[in-house]
């Protein structure tokens, strides 16, 4: 008997039935835009369809040149282009799946000189201004959507999703924040929503009854001058009348200053919004954002928050998520940790999308874990992310793997990451690897420091050093003072930290340390409590204000006075993730962390930390100084083993320690384990 009866229940849409209540939400992978990309997309979606997801929605496809996000790629506007999509739809249908194509016109969010919008405007997240469409151009744009839907139908898609949220073109017409028009497409709310309604009406007329039309409706704008709740309900009812099959939930504009999908967001944190809409319309509603495991999804459905759930990034992490739920193997799911490092950060820097915990994502045609024809005995030293990925992948392929770890548990640096408020999900990756070690029979030796003698005298065919990194020490007077700690002392060894603290180093580890120390550990992390999270970031759950923005955010105060210092000048956190850096900076600003750049560290003594900034010497009277100034690779035994003639490989931090980068470590390990 399944543990997820609601999640796995079919959904009857009248003219067709979805096999379960799981939507694979839209993600732009960049495969849509590269030569040979459709073949790779076909392999990508085939695996997800084979994994039994109920309905797939593709990444956004522009209906016209003006609607494109980037100055390259192609809109879907001709049968010739539609032919290229048939390899994708065929792959999904061959596995018994269903797939809809998202139609996305980015409007003022484009990175081109052709940006258009409801009115003359400029988005804060694009360097290019947008001009307002003329009345004739509005009509032409509606027809572009309709034509795009017809081409999707010609390409054998089961339906389309019309993207009406997240601040894209349709959303720009709906809200008075952007729409300043005085013609029939502007002014009153009734006028402003005619643009999406005409698109839906004319699309339904063009594609007939037996074609899925999902409308992605912004139920929570989270921007000033956004829609009211009453307006969102009014639009939902009109969308149903216009012919939509399903309404999907859109949360927040891309320019909103409230995190909506980052790992800091509580799991299922925005399902309450969809629940508010339940009963207002008679067509199915989809809840979305930070739903990453079957139990989270089942609870949302059980509590009547939605008829379906959308998971996007979780299908990057594990294409078999639904299948594993069906087979009561949810403990084997490779969980999305919502880090954005290899998915959204890649997309927004024009790289092909992937996944930090699953480097095969979007690389299914090139990174395959095929059974070995030459079984080897392999020693792996270090059970951090790199060692775990190599061990499980190599063992899965049929090698005999012996894993040595000096600490009493697996996980390496992830054991520290999971301690950071907002990064609790990193524990899920450790859990996943633990299950895989058991499943594939890896011989795990904990509390065991691999020695040169052990590795040299045992007949290992290959030795993998995944020994990781150690915190770099600072070379200043007083560096051995009792006040001085490193990040491992605090996060791993749990050494106490006083009420006033200076953090040296403002990279990713320094920011994490500031986040950790800025939280009162007697309170549950707001990432684990929806109401606390919404209060901290300024979301009005009563929806008394436009866009559901509270009058002010109400963060919990920091229990410490914190100084985050760096030697270089310029903005703190400029090298943090493209799509998450602003979250970390905003969080520390709310906690009133003091940011000091261009600092020369002079010494540490009983008085505190002595620094020089702009040729002025000052003392920061702190109880502790926490060093987060990078790390050194741990490469013990490498030269000796190499000299002995052993086949030896360095991976992860032991190989490259310049940036503590789990994405690179896991990818490197996966590639080596695939080729060895």
TrEMBL record:
Enzyme nomenclature, EC number: 1.3.1.34
Flavoprotein among keywords: yes
Domain of life: Bacteria
Annotated FAD/NAD(P)-binding domain residues: 377-641
Keywords in alphabetical order: Flavoprotein, FMN, Iron, Iron-sulfur, Metal-binding, Oxidoreductase
GO molecular function, one term: 2,4-dienoyl-CoA reductase (NADPH) activity
Co-factor requirement: FMN; [4Fe-4S] cluster
Key word Metal-binding present: yes
Uppermost EC category: oxidoreductase
Domain NADH:flavin oxidoreductase/NADH oxidase N-terminal span(s) in chain numbering: 6-331
Span of the signal peptide: none
PANTHER family registered for this protein in UniProt: 2,4-DIENOYL-COA REDUCTASE, 2,4-DIENOYL-COA REDUCTASE [(2E)-ENOYL-COA-PRODUCING]
Record family assignment: In the N-terminal section; belongs to the NADH:flavin oxidoreductase/NADH oxidase family.
Record's protein name: NADPH-dependent 2,4-dienoyl-CoA reductase
Organism taxonomic ancestry: Bacteria, Pseudomonadati, Bacteroidota, Cytophagia, Cytophagales
